[in-house]
Amino acid sequence: MAGATPPDQTGKLQFDTDKGAGRSKWIAGLFALALIGWMGSGVILPSGDPDAGVVADAPDRAVSVAVMDSVAQNVPLVLTAEGQSIPDRAATLRAKADGQIASVAVSRGDLVSAGQEIARIDASIAEAQLLQAQTQLAQAQRDYDNALALQDRGIATEDRVSQARAARAAAEAAVTSAQDQLDNTIVTAPFAGRLNDLTVNTGESVENGMVLAEVLDNDPLTVVVQVPQQALSRLQTGQDAQVSFITGEQKAGTIAFIGANADRQTRTFRVEIIVDNPDSVMPAGLSARVSMPTGQARGHFVSPAVLSLGTNGELGVKTVDADNRVVFSTVQIVRAQTDGIWIAGLPEQARIITVGQGFVNQGDHVEPRAPAQDQTALVQP
């Protein structure tokens, strides 16, 4: 048709005649107004109240912990040390003469008294030598007497008398020596004790210096322990001690010796405790634990499980104050037992946290509760 407008073939979009074009503009305008209103509400832009929009902190929630009421008690302080028993005296018996064992009077393990015969060496040679020496002494005595008589008559000189006197003295010395040789053929115990060893039998030959037996004096028995230097000032001789042997026996003892020079290796001091041991029933060489009371202190009895470490690694206990706040107190262990420990450093009366101490810190608010029955048993002396 002539005069008609040809269609636009350039691909340009036209929205002016679109029915939805006006609606889109209205939606965009409303969205912009909403955004401006939200920004002006004060959530992003500060309002006059600085605390507006800030969420209030939730109230603290108290942690429930088990608490035990404890009152300090007098605690005997005891120093404990490990050691072993040794004989009070020990002697090795050696032969003092050559010869053959003629007899043995005791058996190994027997109790012997001081001076009791242990064994006898054949004494026939020693007896003959003694008889010879005694005969020579008798002759020397007669010669001396004759010299004196002749001197009185003016026949013998002073030199002859002196020679006779010297000969008599030599003969007396020979008799004494022969008697000693005879006495040495009898082996005796130097003190009362137990015959711990006997190495010879009848008929055996022995030489001078050979070991024949050993005698131990175990009454009293001596227990030796090493004490650290920081505890030395708390001990003194005459102090009582309790000795527990590895065999189960327990004996009362007394401190008899405190060393005055520290061991170069361990820097500890030797302490000896004397224990009565009638008939040497307890043998030497037993391991023993010695408990020595050294005074007393005030302390609380607790289970080791209640102990905690402070921020600097110090050992302590957590308690609860009157405001139910946690208090950490540094403590010292003054005595340890198999069923618990005694600690010092807490007030005379304290509420000790026994369960839950690992979940609270100094100053925390807690809710105390009584411990269960099995937990109470862990902290009662």
TrEMBL record:
CC terms in the record's Gene Ontology section: efflux pump complex
Pfam family, one: Beta-barrel_RND_2
UniProt keyword annotations, A-Z: Coiled coil, Membrane, Transmembrane, Transmembrane helix
Domain of life the protein comes from: Bacteria
Membrane listed as a keyword: yes
GO molecular function, one term: efflux transmembrane transporter activity
Domain CusB-like beta-barrel intervals: 223-292
Residue stretches in coiled coil: 123-181
Domain Multidrug resistance protein MdtA-like barrel-sandwich hybrid: 89-215
Chain ranges passing through the membrane: 26-45
Listed PANTHER family: BLR2860 PROTEIN, MULTIDRUG RESISTANCE PROTEIN MDTA
Family classification: Belongs to the membrane fusion protein (MFP) (TC 8.A.1) family.
Protein's name in the database: Efflux transporter, RND family, MFP subunit
Annotated source species: Yoonia vestfoldensis SKA53
